[in-house]
Design brief:
The complex is a heterodimer of chains A (about 475) and B (about 375). In chain A, helix 8 packs across helix 19, helix 10 crosses helix 15 and helix 15 crosses helix 16. Chain A contains 19 helices and no strands. In chain B, about 50% of the residues lie in helices and about 5% in strands. Chain B has 16 helices and 5 strands. Chain B has a 5-stranded parallel β-sheet with strand order 2-1-3-4-5, with helices on both faces. In chain B, helix 12 packs across helix 13. Classes of the chains: A mainly alpha (about 475), B alpha/beta (about 375). At the A-B interface, helix 8, helix 17 and helix 19 of A face helix 1 and helix 7 of B.
């Protein structure tokens, strides 16, 4: 089920909210069970064939977690339990997500005739990473004992289940345990509704609105210079509003239940360096990769060269996490290389004189955005050679179409650029602070007609913009 | 605690009010002219032909439907009317398949078309989703079902178009907005129905259509990396089934309608590309077109024309923008041939022009 669908907005969400708060009058645990069951139903409606896999994954990780937290094991046994747990998770992820890719490459290399058609379970990357972090923290002794319903809800919680953010047990489970979240809090419902409305508008009106222009570059056999640029920029902005809209909707829905989700998206195209970009884009994935991959690899503690190696490995795996294809590997490698250059620049170039700070930031912003656009071309293209074709077209200004379609596309792309670079983001509009568990504190949400009617318009046009064939780009990761 | 809940209710009620207001605006302005010809605001048209056709069928008067794929998309209705002495409605859709074309024609006939001019190529018979499962085609919009009307009226995209149409109706804004509309990100940007997908009148034909472009396209599609695309979709049995259902079935259901069907003049390089890179597909093309020619030429209400073997057109690569799409100069010739009845297939020898084409394809050597 998609957030941007009539059944979700008009039936599923209201019913789950009513049931949650009704049960919340009676006990502190039944609303948790209700929400976990509702999350399973949410998952089953779109992916019933993988519900068993999701439940098995929860049971397996909860069991291994119990061994690490509660069982009296010696260090070697604990280490073995962790290895079994993480290996089991990675094995399942590997089989479902990468077996086909491996077979395809073996066929290409050795001429074997392996044929594998394995469907990718929706959300597997998110619920696997979520649970790996749980196991590692349990092994580190950083996890208290949790009861199964809270753990199951932490994994299945429907606002995040299919497309993130990647949740952390230490952040979420204490919220699920709190009694206050089981009672309707009008302020949080109102703020959640407004954030959801903004997200829905971004998705159905902005992301889906620019999506047709993407074909200019990516579906054309030989795009011209302007078509390649416009198509690449259209995809850059489509992905932005798609992901940003989803992140807002997830936060807004969760907020109605009284639960604060982590911010996953913070105006990444305003970044003035690639390091800053990754602190603003898919922030929970960046944190996961940092805490559970980059730092365990040695991070920056083993010298400059190994730091760069670790960065590249981390980003390569981050690329592969997004999808089993060489285009994602190239995308990850590019970002690894960008990060290495960025860190090397910071290390080698002396601090800017204050007079040059502003021009340097502008140059950094432009260079970062350009680098990100180039990488998105590999991210979106079906094959590496198709991405090359677009890149070559983008460097050949002798071939220009610039007809009606291209001029109209330029107008639209320019509007999106203004929105991306100059409009405040949702956290800024709503004063959302995940760490402080605060939202709308300083902006007088309840007494601001502009905000109420603006959100009503956004919700209305977001609903009117719903199309039957509009998935989230991160849906299949 | 009361106040925020009041605001939640206010927000939700206001949303409902916005939804209702937007759909009312869409009904009144009706940018697609689905309910009535445009009166309140100046009429405007879109090049999104799969949607636009639903509005054209409802709002235009016509006695002849002109349909086809991208090969027929640049024709102007006024040229068709002048050449054939009819009142035509152009319903061509780029990349359309026989299901879509048959469905639209059925509606056109139901709304009064007595004659159909049909640009028919073999490609339209490749496999395609059922008309109700086609994500690029809203059959419900043509049928005016509740779902189709709701998708039109309860739509942000329609509301955007309605608002622009309203702005355009304001006298001081009318002329400037009408002139810049084609360059704005709005669908209903054309003020003349004749301009739907037609090339601009000042279009540089020699720059858009020339042998250099045609040969470049030939090199591109025959590149070993992608030459297998030439054979995709050519499943003889499936194509025969689609032909029977979408063409023969439709024609048989409407014996009182005259069908002028023509095979368009591809450049010879299209067949040569298949000859060299995908001979199995070429064999299927020959077989399917032999069947189509034989079957259609025998139907009493069909006049079949085959323009594929007209050497002076198909071998002159300056007539093409790629290996299949011909220039507006050839569009004009097509209309002349149709008006004069030239190159009509003789039911007694339906394969004569195909045999001529085969011989040309065999003999042709690509210029180096």
């Amino acid at each position: 089920m998609l957030f941007n669908s009539y059944p979700f907005i008009l039936l599923f969400l209201p019913a789950v909210l009513v049931g949650y708060f009704w049960l919340g009058r009676r006990s502190n645990l039944t609303p948790v069970v209700w929400l976990a069951l509702a999350s399973l139903a949410f998952y089953a409606i779109g992916s019933w064939q993988f519900v068993g896999l999701l439940l098995a994954s929860i049971a397996f990780n909860y069991g291994v977690g119990w061994l690490l937290i509660a069982a009296k094991l010696n260090p070697a046994q604990r280490r073995a339990a962790l290895i079994v747990g993480v290996a089991g998770d990675l094995l399942v992820l590997g089989v479902f997500k990468y077996a086909g890719f491996v077979a395809e490459n073996l066929n290409a290399l050795f001429g074997t005739g392996l044929t594998l058609h394995i469907l990718l379970p929706v959300g597997i990357s998110f619920y696997t990473f979520t649970q790996i972090a749980f196991l590692v923290d349990a092994w580190r002794g950083q996890v208290a004992t949790y009861v199964l319903p809270h753990y199951a809800l932490f994994v299945t919680y429907f606002p995040h289940l299919i497309a993130g953010p990647i949740l952390h047990h230490k952040d979420m489970i204490p919220q699920f345990e709190r009694e206050e979240t089981k009672h309707p809090q009008a302020h949080l419902i109102l703020c959640g509704l407004i954030i959801f409305a903004i997200g829905l508008f971004k998705k159905t009106c902005l992301a889906d609105g620019i999506q047709p222009l993407v074909a200019l570059a990516f579906d054309a056999r030989s795009p011209t210079f302007d078509q390649a640029w416009l198509g690449a920029l259209a995809y850059t902005f489509q992905l932005y509003f798609d992901f940003s809209g989803y992140s807002d909707m997830a936060i807004g829905i969760s907020l109605m239940f009284g639960i604060f989700l982590p911010v996953n998206f913070n105006s990444p195209y305003k970044a003035t360096s690639i390091v800053e970009f990754w602190r603003r884009w898919h922030m929970t994935l960046s944190q996961f990769l940092r805490d559970y991959l980059y730092i365990p690899l040695g991070g920056n503690r083993r010298g400059r060269v190994l730091r760069y190696v670790n960065l590249v490995i981390t980003m390569l795996l981050g690329g592969l996490w997004h999808g089993a294809a060489w285009t994602f590997v190239v995308w990850g490698a590019l970002h690894g290389a960008y990060l290495c250059v960025n860190h090397a620049f910071n290390a080698l170039v002396p601090k800017m004189p204050s007079a040059l700070t502003r021009p340097a930031r502008v140059a950094g912003f432009a260079l970062t955005f350009l680098a990100v656009v180039v990488a998105w071309i590999f991210f979106r293209a079906e094959r590496i050679e198709w991405a090359w074709r677009i890149l070559l077209a983008m460097t050949d200004p002798t071939q220009i179409a610039f007809g009606r379609e291209e001029i109209a596309a330029l107008v639209l792309v320019s509007i999106y650029a203004v929105l991306v670079w100059f409009a405040p983001n949702t956290q800024e509009i709503m004063g959302y602070d995940h760490r402080k568990r605060a939202v709308g504190v300083d902006i007088a949400v309840e007494t601001s007609p502009l905000l109420i009617y603006g959100a009503a318009a956004a919700l209305a046009f977001g609903i009117l913009g719903i199309q039957s064939h509009s998935e989230f780009i991160y849906f299949r990761f | 605690m009361r106040k925020p809940f009041t605001q939640v209710k206010r927000l939700l009620l206001a949303s409902v009010a916005f939804v209702l207001a937007a759909s009312a605006l869409n009904y009144v302005v009706d940018p697609l002219q689905l309910f009535r010809p445009s009166r309140l605001v100046p009429a405007a048209y879109s090049v999104d032909t799969r949607m636009q056709n639903a509005g054209l069928l409802a709002s235009q008067s016509f006695d002849t439907a002109f349909i086809g794929s991208s090969l027929a998309i640049h024709f102007r209705q006024s040229d068709i009317d002048r050449a054939l002495g009819v009142r035509s409605l152009k319903l061509a859709m780029t990349g359309s398949n026989s299901r879509q074309q048959g469905f639209v024609l059925e509606d056109a006939i139901a709304r009064g078309a007595k004659r159909v001019v049909w640009e028919m190529d073999d490609w339209i018979y490749v496999d395609a989703p059922a008309i109700d499962d086609d994500p690029y085609f809203s059959a419900d919009l043509y049928r005016r079902t509740a779902k189709g009307l709701a998708s039109y009226l309860l739509s942000t995209a329609t509301t955007k178009e309605s608002l622009v149409s309203l702005l355009r109706a304001i006298p001081p804004l009318h002329a400037p907005l009408a002139s810049v509309a084609p360059y704005l990100p709005v669908k209903f940007a054309l003020s003349d129905v004749d301009d739907i997908y037609a090339l601009p009148r000042n279009f540089d034909v020699s720059a858009g259509y020339n042998a250099k472009r045609t040969l470049a396209a030939f090199a591109y599609i025959t590149d070993p990396v992608r030459s297998h695309f030439l054979g995709i979709g050519y499943d003889y049995d499936a194509m025969v089934g689609h032909f029977q259902r979408d063409a023969v079935g439709l024609i048989a259901r409407h014996p009182d309608v005259t069908f002028d069907i023509y095979f368009p003049p591809y450049s010879i390089l299209q067949y040569v590309a298949m000859r060299d890179a995908s001979p199995a597909a070429l064999k299927t093309v020959y077989e399917i077109t032999a069947l189509v020619a034989t079957r259609l030429s025998q139907l009493p209400n069909v006049r079949l024309y085959d323009f594929r073997a007209i050497k002076e057109v198909t071998h002159d690569l300056d007539n093409y923008g790629d290996v299949i799409h011909h220039s507006p100069v050839v569009d004009a010739k097509v209309l002349t041939w149709l008006a004069e009845g030239k190159y009509r297939v003789d039911p007694r020898a339906p394969l004569a022009s195909l045999d001529a084409l085969k011989a040309q394809v065999e003999a042709y050597r690509v210029p180096r």
